[in-house]
Structure formats: structure tokens, C-alpha cells
Amino acid sequence: MKKITLLLSFLCLGFANQQLTAQNFSDHAKAEIAKNNYLPALDELTTFLEANPNNEILLTYRANFYAKAGQNEKAIADATQVMLLNPKSTHGLITLGTAKMALGKTQEGVESLNQALAIQPNLKPALILRSKAYFKLNQPEKSLADLSFLIKDDPKILEAYVYRGQLYTAMKQLDSAKADYQFILNQAVVGDKYHSAATDKLKEVLQKEAAAKAALTEKATDDAYAKKLTDQVTSLSKEVNETTVRLTKMLTESTTEINRFIQKNDAIPKTDWQGKAQLFQEINPRIKTYLTNLQKERTYLAGKEAYRGLMTNIEGSISAMNLIIERTSPYAARRQQFVETVNAMDAAITVDFKNMLATQKSKQETTFEQQKKQSLAKTQELLISINQSREALLKLDATKYREQDESKITKLLADYTKTLANINGIVY
């Protein structure tokens, strides 16, 4: 009845300002509001608003009733209109927050409540609603802060104690929850809603405490089992720690070795194949040793859940090492020598060929014949070198003598054989 009286007094004030009277709100609508049925009142408010579409009070109440009736989209529409009429309407902001949260837009609801609290920091409904929203957003500390602020501002606001007790219970701070419920029991009238709620909630807390103690007691009855389990866990933890330290050291050392190789390799010019071959010869066996040790560790740890993270690092390191080993093998070094030799000899042949053409053009017969002979000799020498490289690569490691390398060498032989014929065909 108190709620209806407050509502009517508020409506009277609003209606008076808009040239309406409280009698325009029917007894039937008032009676239905008391039963939490807001539809008759909504119909009447809609009728009032037809004549007064920008009446802030009527829009505020209709937005509120829409929210209570579960018509949240309509509530948001009316509340938004209220905010256009009065940007500082805390009632409009609270209704916006309530409706948005009811639609699952909890964060947006919090933002509306934040605006209301910026206008009136100790606004009870906004603080309680925001506290509930924070809990839904899994931010219990913020939820607790709102309730504690409200209680500090008004130590006798029992509703806040009810919610804070529930929050403490969810956070497993049972002693704090009991203290809040006990405060309510000391302050509330026996039989009222706060006293009844505190009584029920306190029983729940005491039951949770009893269950927790029973669980601890049951667990403690088998001391031998508990000790055995503890010893097993300790032993496993020790093994995991020792293995982790050992493998971390191994992975760190191997990574350092690989990085050192990369730096040295980058510092050696591409044309210095002897220097690279020497570096490959040094690094290859060391990386193979690391690889062998890591493969042993992988076999030992396979299928053990506790080492899943380490296994991922081991697999990555093994892949990197296999790549380094492949790229630093004797085959890789000899192949690089072959490439550098061909490039160098090709460059020399190209220079001689250009000189020969220039001599031919300038009618220097003797010099032309010498240069032609020199070009033919160098091209033949290059063909011999390519064939020797092919044989050397096959001997070193047939499995690494890939089809693509064989195809490239065959093409080179064909190209330089053709070059040899072309040079032979040039006459003075």
C-alpha cells in the first residue's frame, strides 16, 4: 500500500504540472498495480500521453511499468525519450539500465547506471542494480564495493546487507556473510521480508559450513591414504621440476648454439664457400648431439600429461635442429661449392665472350683467335667441373641429391654445351 501511495503522490505532482489530476488514474489500475499487473496502468498512461506526448513524469512511469511487465524494448524507447527531455533524469537512467540488463546487455546496463551515479553517487537503486550487474559480469570485488559504499552511506539499509550476505557466500567468505545476516536479524522486525530472508540465508550459510567441515573430517579420517597421496604428489612434483629444469637448460643451450651458428653464417660472405663449409663441419655434429638427446627425452616423456607444454617446445626444437642439420650437411657444403664455382666461371666466360666479340668487330684477327681459344677452354673446364660436382654430390649423400638438383645440373650441362657450340661457331 505504501508503494501505491508513493506512486500516486508522484503522479499527482506530475499530473498537476501537466494540467491532469490523480483521479484520471483508475481504481482498477491502482488495484492491479498492487498485484504486479501493470497492463491496465500502461493502457491508461498511453491514453494520457496521447494528449501529453512529452510529459516526462508519464513517460518515466510508463518506461518503469514496461520494464516491470517485461516489455523491455518499449521501456528503453520511453526511457530514451525521458533522457532527451531531461538529460539528468536518474529515473530514466535506472530504467534504461534495468531494461538493458533484462535483455542480456549487462555491460550497457552498467554504463547507464554509471551515468545515474555520476549525477547522484549515493543513489540506492542504482548502486544495488549495478552491484548485481557486476556479479553477473564476474566482477565480485566491484559488486562488493558498491554494496559496502551503500551500507557506509546508510548503515541501516537492510536490503544491501541481504545482497552483500549473498555475495559473501558466493565468494566463500562465510564468516562475513554470517555477520551481515546476523545484523539484519538484530535490526529487522521479526516476520518482515528482511528478517525472513536473513533467517533463510543464514541457515544456508550454516549448512555450507557444516558440509565443508564434514568433508574435511571425512578426508582426515584416512591419514594413511592422505599421506600416501601427498607423498605421490610430492614425488611427482619433484620429478616434474627436475625434468623441467633439465630440459629448459638443454633447450636454452641448443637455442644459443643455433643462434650463434646463424650469426656466424651471416657474417661469412656467400662467395666464401670454404669458410661456410668449415662452419658447417663444426656445427653439424654438435647439433646432431643435441638432437639425439632431445629425441631420447621425447621418447621418455611421450604420453605424460604433466609434460604436455614441454613436449610442444621439444617438438619445435627438433624440427629446427633437423633443418639446421640438413642445411649444414657435407652435401649442403659441397652443393654450395658447386654453385659458387659455376657462378664464378660463368662470369669469367661471359667477360671473355664479350671481349671476343669486341675484338672481332675491331678486326684484330690474332687477338680474336686467342680469345676464342680461351673461351672454349674455360667453357670446357666448366663442363668438366659440373660433371665432377654431380659425381661428388652423388657420393656424399644420394638421399639428399634431390631430383630438382639433378634436373638443374642436367640443364646446366645442356646450356654450356650449347654455349660451347656457339663459341665454336663464331669466326673472324
Commentary on this structure:
- It comes from Kaistella chaponensis.
- TPR repeats lie at residues 90-123.
- This is Tetratricopeptide repeat-containing protein.
- It is a single chain.
- With 428 residues, the protein is mainly α.
- It folds into three domains: 2-136, Serine Threonine Protein Phosphatase 5, Tetratricopeptide repeat (Alpha Horseshoe); 236-328; 335-425.
- Helices cover 83% and strands 0% of the residues.
- The chain has 18 helices and no strands.
- It is elongated, with a radius of gyration of 44 Å.
- The relative contact order is 0.03.
- Mean pLDDT is 84; it is low at 1-23.
Strand residue content: under 5%
Quaternary status of these chains? single chain
Number of strands: 0
The CATH topology of the largest domain, please?
A: Serine Threonine Protein Phosphatase 5, Tetratricopeptide repeat
- Nearest-integer average pLDDT: 84
Q: How much helix is in the residues?
A: over 70%
Spell out the helices and strands N to C: HHHHHHHHHHHHHHHHHH
Domain count: the total is 3
- Uncertain residue ranges: 1-23
Q: Architecture of the largest domain in CATH?
A: Alpha Horseshoe
**Global Rg:** 44 Å
| Gap between N and C termini | 124 Å
**What is the CATH homology-level superfamily of the largest domain?**
Tetratricopeptide repeat domain
Instruction: Please identify the top-level CATH class of the largest domain.
Output: Mainly Alpha
**Tally of separate helices:** 18
The major beta sheet can be summarized as: none
Shape: elongated
